Amino acid sequence: MPGDSVVNDYVPFYFSPVTSFTFTIYRQNVPLVSPDGEYLRQACEDDRIFLVGQPDSFRDSGLFYCFSDHALNSNAPLPSIETDLDKLEDHVHWLVFDEAHDRACIPEIGYPGVNRWFHNMASPAHRMTRSPKRMAEFLVYSAVPLGFIDCIIVKTDAMRDKLQTMMDASVWNISIYTKRGCFFG
Fold it and tell me: Is 80 within 8 Å of 68 (Cβ atoms)?
């Protein structure tokens, strides 16, 4: 990572809610473990929320950010890190997101959605590494002020209501939308 930092120094954002990581949570393959190592339970999709922001809003923020073209745990191909927002459109492999907009539409913020398929395929060639391309990340060093969050996406109305209660007790007024299409189950 830039400046001798490590990936755990960053707040990660994916370019889509439909990723192999979200799928593995849906399949209950991710254990929740306390800071002292105690197993709590398996992670579940109903508890997952998405904080949605726009990369361009970080341009003159004074915050350090960077973005990758592949999952940061990929070895083939190795991910490339970029820090120039003017290169975002050429750096990220948007074709694997935009082949169809049949999932995860958020009309309230003008997001048309994404192609539902994220797994690798033998052909065509651009799909051979589709999964790591779909796990490309936008990373912000250390912390992200809530003022950079455009909305919060949840799977269920129960989670929306729970978060809205917290929002009402705070100084923040971030829109919360229930969007089942951003999740698998």
Answer: yes
